[in-house]
Amino acid sequence: MKRLENKVVVITGSAQGMGKTHAEKVLSEGGKVVITDINEELGNNVAQELGENAIFIRHDVSNEDDWKNVIDTVVDKWGRIDVLVNNAGITTNTSIEDLTLDSYMKIVNINQVSVFLGMKTVAPIMKAQKEGSIINISSMNGLVGGAICYTDTKFAVRGMTKAASRDLSPHNIRVNSVHPGVIQTPMLELEEVKEQVEQFKKTIPMRRVAQTEEVSNMIVFLASDESSYSTGSEFVIDGGITAL
Question: What is the pTM of this model?
Answer without folding.
Answer: 0.95
